[in-house]
Amino acid sequence: MTTVAALRACYGKAEHAEPSDPFAAIVWENVAYLVDDERRRRVFERLQRDVGIDPDRLLAAGPARIETIVAPGGGMQPSRRADKVLECARIAMECAGGDLRAALKASDERGRRTLLKRFPGIADPGADKVLLFSGLSGRPALESNGLRVLVRLGHVRERASYSATYRDGIAFLSSSGVATASEAKLAFDLLRLHGRETCTRTKPSCGRCVLRATCPSARTFGSTVSRA
Ligand code: SF4
After folding, report:
1. How far apart are alpha carbons 170 and 156 in whole angstroms?
2. Which is the closest atom of ligand 1 to the Cα of 152?
3. Could you tell me the residue range of the domain that residue 26 belongs to?
4. For ligand 1, is residue 191 a contact (CB within 6 Å)?
5. Could you give the number of structural domains in the chain?
């Protein structure tokens, strides 16, 4: 895919901050809210160090202790984030016997997605991401920054619902040469990085964008801001 090749030439290999273990990746999603990767990582690592990213240990620690640990993780009330972390632990115990990776491995593709979507904060994009980075699927994944880049480049049309636009984004990647898990991971990380650093939601830096020569939005930006 030429877009990914151009981004790779520009950024090199983008870092993937999130854990590869499926349960840890879900806890990572829920420990913080609307913060950068570095702050999320600090909260996650403290939870890992002081309690352990394990359903049994999280449930044994209880809400008050978890709330204290996740408090620096952003805007929403820490008690609600603690509740979500505990909900993740309960679902992992009830639906996966405490071993989410084993339960996912034992399921087919549809069963994996159904199981993952039981967890707080996990819809289709989150399920795709967890499965890809845990090595359980080679299907491409996108998050909101990467999808916005594809929309602005004209590869994907913005539709009435985010989920429909997301499905089109995945179909575009699949049909444009993103064929292996390592290519899908690279595309995910580079599109995300570009959306965060250059093609930002409200103020894209088209003047210094490596994709501007072929981007239809570069000419019109300033008067039109995509909400993707
Ligand atoms: S030229 Fe502008 S709108 Fe197009 S991808 Fe680059 S930053 Fe985004």
Report:
1. 9
2. 3
3. 22-133
4. no
5. 2
